[in-house]
Amino acid sequence: MTVSASPSALTLRLTKAQVAAFLDDTFPESSRPLLGQVESLALNHLRMRLDPDPSMRRPGNIVSGPSLMALVDVAAYAVIAAHNGPEAMAVTNALSISFLRACQFEPIYADARILKLGRRLASVDVRIWQRSEDRLVAQSTVGYALP
């Protein structure tokens, strides 16, 4: 399988339904609702939606940071799979996140875009928002090691 070297040369290898099925097969059934659902897929863009669960609540009635980091990680994993094919052994090798404002208990969206997809490493930008794409809750850069 060939891998595109830059985002401008990317091609989709999976459909939205195939990415969703891949995530369902890869993660335990009990954890899937806590990791978000694929909302849309386009070339170099995957959007996930997460409806917060009471287990994600932290003091101040906001969504916990670890819950947001899990959403970021899964969104990055999913956008890589959509463009690289369903490889379960791709693993996170770096994750940097900046929390920009409190995340309220309402739908959360994560937009993942590939910065670079190489043979061994991938870098993904993930932005988390609520209500409006202009109202960022967090921004993250995620690195993945590819088998």
From TrEMBL:
It holds the Pfam family 4HBT. SUPFAM superfamilies: Thioesterase/thiol ester dehydrase-isomerase. This is Uncharacterized domain 1-containing protein. It comes from the Bacteria. Residues 61-133 form the Thioesterase domain. The keyword Hydrolase applies. Keywords: Hydrolase. GO terms for molecular function: acyl-CoA hydrolase activity.
